[in-house]
Design a protein that fits this description.
By secondary structure, the chain is of the alpha/beta class. It has helices at residues 2-21, 32-35, 52-66, 85-94, 108-115, 123-129, 137-142, 166-172, 181-193, 204-219, 221-226, 237-250, 260-268, 280-286, 329-340, 342-352, 369-379, 394-410, 413-427, and strands spanning 40-44, 71-74, 101-105, 144-145, 148-149, 151-153, 155-158, 161-164, 197-199, 272-276, 302-305, 312-316, 318-321, 355-356, 381-384. The chain is built from 19 helices and 15 strands. The structure holds beta-D-galactopyranose.
């Protein structure tokens, strides 16, 4: 009950923020055509905060220009990684009052919506726009069941990024980005000795986000990917070692911040040395001050693959859906067309800090961090994110988040490992 209430407050705040942020645009006006609410297209996401909202606004502008008869209604719910949005979405889906389109992660998360019968298939849209040719085949696999495709991926994000402040590292005598977990803990210790925050963290989901990079960095790509197959051994000595490293790394964490933005900001402001966060942090660091921090790349912040994970892209992808029973189905399809388009993706992604899901995007728009990301995406091995819906479905993730939450209090590695193993046994399919 309390959770629902909090989500409802967040949606009100989010709408207010997004309306005031883009003052004077169409969403702030009452609907035209005699208040015809059917013309509104309710787009549900969790992109409200600094950095997050910029990309959405860019796509919204294209949508409104191309579709003068529809009004974009921003139903975003605040809270990084959708931790509040997804709870509200579930209640809307259960009550058969879905938004017209909602954000869902490619992979196990989307498969959950498909299996629950929440989504319409989009094969005719894919045929009409020839989308089978422009998205990577392995990405289409993640959003399909039995040859039917259920969402439109708008981007590829990287989860395993180590953001760091070059000045803080220098001051602490750390020569460069640590490449292994052992080098990482040594660097954290050096920063601690200088009195700066070694590692910044945000709300609880950011700790699960950190855990996935530590598991990947400690186990290696094949053993990490094997964790999500039925019968996987989460009780192995290798997983124990990874979790011990996680405990050591977490012992250098600063005070938990409210969400990922304030934690990332501690690095860009020179208060903290390191933060492991997805590359949406790049949009936040780099975008001009109206939405981002306007920081200088390589001076205020720098990046490297999370320790031990070089050569692997721990990936995730945001996609938009057509829920069954959408009030404005035509409006939702019009939104999906923008999300699928080269123009939409090339407006959205440079601001969002992600690379396009389309293979034919304009590479010249992806500079600085994003040029590195494009290059790595084309050559790296792949591993699927835990926190962001690729490798585990929502019930499994909820159990992992609960185990990590308990661990933050107990620091008990054996109990964490048992809870993770139990979660895998209960949920792996
Ligand atoms: C992820 C999402 C990203 C970004 C991030 C932080 O789950 O895929 O697009 O929004 O959460 O909120």
């Amino acid at each position: 009950m309390r959770r629902r209430w909090m989500a409802a407050v967040a949606i009100t705040m989010a709408s207010a923020l997004s309306l005031s942020a883009c003052g004077g645009d169409q969403a702030a006006e009452p609907t035209t055509g005699g208040g015809d609410a059917a013309k509104q297209v309710e787009v549900f996401s969790w992109w409200t905060g600094p950095g997050e909202a910029d990309g959405l606004q860019a796509m919204k502008q294209i949508f409104e220009k191309q579709n003068p008869s529809f009004t974009f209604f921003d139903a975003a719910v605040a809270g990084g990684s959708g931790d509040k949005a997804k709870a509200l979405l579930q209640s809307k889906l259960q009550a058969d009052t879905p938004p017209d389109t909602f954000q869902g992660h490619a992979g196990a998360e989307l498969q959950g919506y498909i299996k629950a019968g929440d989504l319409e298939e989009l094969n005719s849209l894919y045929d009409e726009l020839k989308l089978q040719d422009v998205f990577p085949a392995q990405l289409i696999d993640q959003i399909s069941v039995d040859g039917k495709i259920y969402s439109v991926p708008v981007n590829i994000h990287r989860s395993n990024v180590l953001w760091f402040n070059p000045g803080v590292l220098k001051e602490a005598g750390v020569a460069g980005a640590p490449k292994t977990i052992e080098e990482f803990t040594a660097a954290l210790q050096k920063v601690k000795a200088k009195g700066k925050i070694p590692l910044s963290i945000g709300s609880e989901w950011t700790v699960t986000h950190l855990l996935e990079s530590v598991l990947l960095g400690s186990l290696g790509t094949d053993a990490y990917n094997a964790l999500f197959k039925p019968g996987a051994d989460w009780n192995s000595a290798e997983v124990t070692k990874a979790l011990e490293s996680f405990k050591t790394i977490m012992s250098y964490a600063g005070d938990p911040q409210d969400d990922w933005q304030p934690a990332a900001k501690q690095v860009a402001d020179g208060e903290a040395a390191f933060n492991i966060m997805g590359d949406w942090a790049y949009g936040y660091f780099h975008n001009p001050p109206e939405g981002g921090l306007g920081k200088t790349s390589k001076t205020d912040f720098d990046w490297a693959p999370a320790p031990g994970t070089e050569g692997t892209y721990l990936w995730l992808s945001d996609s938009f859906t057509l829920p069954k029973g959408a009030k404005n189905r035509d409006g939702a399809l019009a939104w999906l067309k923008v999300a699928a388009s080269k123009e939409g993706q090339d407006a959205f992604n440079p601001k969002k800090g992600s690379i396009p899901a389309r293979k034919d995007a304009d590479q010249a728009l992806y500079t600085d961090y994003l040029a590195d990301a494009l290059k790595d995406w084309s050559g790296d091995k792949l591993a699927g994110s835990i926190q962001h819906g690729v490798s585990v479905n929502q019930p499994w993730l909820a159990s992992i988040n609960e185990a990590v939450g308990l661990f933050l209090g107990t620091k008990d590695v054996a109990a964490l490992q048992k809870a993770l193993a139990d979660a895998a046994t209960a949920n792996a399919q």
